[in-house]
Design brief:
5 helices, 7 strands, alpha+beta, 7-stranded antiparallel β-sheet, single chain
Length: about 130
């Protein structure tokens, strides 16, 4: 990556600060059809729902633990994890790339997180109805 793309990428610490803030306000999550170019979040089909506080905490751990790639995947992603606050408003989202990466606010941060435990992440998504394999 070079030029403007490199300058516009956030470092891992910046993304982690944002993740801490937004997950601190998250009450539920929806898994939505489509990745980065799936259209407005509110217009997408819901593929899975995460409302139980323990499941929300597990999803947080699975999608925020790992290393940042300092790059982005070139595919559009498969599904999007949309975070909701107590009023049911969208407060953040991350697209799933392959079975290993989450691109949180891709257009804003341009830095994929390589999840620490891809097997548990895929198992969680499958548990909420998202067929990954």
């Amino acid at each position: 990556m070079s030029g403007p793309e490199r300058r516009n990428r956030a470092n891992g610490a910046e993304v982690r600060d944002w993740l801490d803030e937004v997950w601190g306000r998250t009450e539920a999550a929806l898994v939505l059809e489509g990745g980065d170019y799936g259209g407005p979040l509110a217009e997408r089909r819901v593929c899975g729902e995460v409302f139980d506080p323990e499941d929300v905490a597990e999803l947080r751990a699975l999608t925020t633990t790992g290393e940042f790639a300092d790059d982005i995947c070139r595919c559009p992603g498969s599904v999007t994890i949309a975070l909701l606050d107590a009023e049911g408003e969208f407060i953040g989202s991350g697209s799933v790339h392959g079975e290993t990466d989450v691109s949180w606010e891709r257009g804003r941060f341009r830095n994929n997180l390589e999840v620490a435990d891809p097997e548990l992440f895929v198992a969680f998504l499958e548990r909420v109805g998202i067929r990954m394999r």
